[in-house]
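Protocol step 4 of 5: obtain the predicted structure for the target chain.
Materials: sequence only (see below). No template structures provided, no constraints applied. The aim of this step is simply to have a reference model before the mutagenesis design in step 5. Sequence pasted as it appears in the construct record:
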Amino acid sequence: MKIAFTSDEKKGIDSVMSYHFGHCPYFIIVEIDGQKINKVESIENPLAESHNPGELPEFMKNLGVDIIATGGMGPKAQEFFSSFGIKPIIGVYGKVKDVLEELVGEEVYFDYGDNVSEMYEPESFNPNITDVEEEIRRLKMDVMELRREIAELKELIKKK
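Step 4 output (structure tokens):
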């Protein structure tokens, strides 16, 4: 089974979930068999900036995705996913690994060699952008950091 997770980061199952599927920067695709993780891919969302209705569900269908998990998704998008046989799961947050374990109902483990997740690298400073664009970039980074902190708090609560 293949599950796609919307993500703000490119850190495999350690990535923090994104709250909106259509504009998320990355998708983390996890192929599982029971609780066993066979493969993890971190891919850029090729349609993050602009897309027409139905394009992302079709993109996921072409990747062989069975389930998409995200923080939020509109009813029309949910219909598109369902029409392609992909089950949308909305309202999830935290780290991909934690959400995966919630979906599977047990702790997951890897069953493939030395998979090293691709690490997230923050955007570098660009002297050609305006002050407003720079402030927007900083705010986006702050939001991503807050999501990471929420994910860490969720992990702490889970351990207690």
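Step 4 remarks: The beta strands are 2-7, 26-33, 36-44, 67-69, 87-89, 109-110. The two ends are 30 Å apart (CA to CA).
Proceed to step 5.
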